[in-house]
Design goal:
There is one protein chain. By secondary structure, the protein is an alpha+beta fold. The protein has one domain. It is elongated and about 70 Å long. The strands form 2 sheets. Strands 1-2-5-6 form a 4-stranded antiparallel β-sheet. A two-stranded antiparallel ribbon has the order 3-4. Helix content is 54%, strand content 11%.
Length: 235
Amino acid sequence: MPSADKERPDDSARPAPSRRLAVRSPICVAVFLAVSAAGLTADLLTKHAVFQSLLGRPGLADDVRLAQARLRARHGEGFSSRDVLEECQLRRPVCPGVQLTLSTNPGVVFGINVPRPAVAVATAITMALVFYFFATSDRRAWAVQAALALILAGAMGNLYDRLFSKVELPGIEPIRNQVRDFIDCSGLHYPWVFNVADVLLVVGVALLVVHWWIAGRGVRRKPAGPSGSGRSVGR
C-alpha cells in the first residue's frame, strides 16, 4: 500500500508565492510618505524655533562684538562667522546633562569636512537607495518601511540646510549652507552637538540593523529541506 506521504504533493515543487511589493500598495506608500514628511517637518521646525529663540535674545549684538574681539586677540583676522557663533556660546539648559547650544556644521557627521559636491552626491545616492529598498520591500515589512522613511527624512532635513540655510548674527556675514545643530548632550559626556535629522538617521539605521539581525537568525534556524519539516517518511 503506498504511503500517505507519497500521495501528498512535494512542497518544494510548489511555486513560491509572489511577493507583494510595497510600491504597489497605496497604504504603504501613503504611510511611508507621511512618516517622511512628519520627520522632515519636525527637523526643520525645531531648527527654526531654537535658532530664532536664542538668536533673538537681548544684547546679542554686544555678545557678537565681544566674541569678535576675543577671536581677534587670539587669531588676528583669521576667523569666520561660524567661529563667532561658537565663541558666543548661545545656550539654554533643558534638563540635567542636556542643553540647547547653537552650532553649525559645514561637513558631515562628527564635523568631518567633506567637499560640498561630494556630500550632495552621497545624499542623492542615499535617497535613491531608500526609494529603491522601499519599492522592492514586501508590503508587510512595516518596520523596514518605517526605518527607510526616517532615514529619508533625516537626509532631506540636513540636505535642506546645506542648500538653503542662513544663520544671521548682527553686524557680520551670515553663515550660509551649513547644517544647523542645537542638541547638546555634553553633560552626558557626548561631545558632539546634533539635531533632529541626525536622530532620525540613527534611529532608522538602528531599526534596519535590528531587523536584518532578527531576519538573519530566522534564516539560520529554518530547516534546510524536507527532512527537517517534521513529517514521517513513508515506508
